[in-house]
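Ticket #4471: structure export looks truncated?
Reporter: QA, pipeline team
Priority: medium

Steps to reproduce: submit the single chain below to the structure queue and open the exported record.
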Amino acid sequence: MAPFEALYGKRCRSPAHWYETGENLIAVPDFVESTTEAVKLIQERMKMAQSRQKSYADRRRRPLEFQVGDYLFLKVAPMKGVMRFGKKEYLTYEEQPVQILDRKDKTLRNKVSPLVKVLWRNHKVKEAT
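Actual output as written to the record:
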């Protein structure tokens, strides 16, 4: 068994032991034994490393305890398309155009782009865009 097989639990699909059709290969028992022992050694060392890392992580971990009235920092990541806390209507704000104040044509090399200054509801004339 190879280290790949020890790590991932399946055989590596490398061409190391491929042979021509009709050709019989007899596995040498010493080779099989040495690879089996090597795999067992790899697995033992991996388990030791995992347990060592777990013990380091467990030492730093402490149980969380909260009391009534404690202040906490709540981190909320935005999730596209998912409303976990429900939609609150009073937070929405809709802009509606009231009047067109000015219109200009901006000329670039080959293109003319119209620029329009619009007065929006709930805005002053100075804030028009």
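Status: closed, not a bug. The export was complete when the record was re-opened. Leaving a note from the reviewer for reference: The two ends are 71 Å apart (CA to CA).
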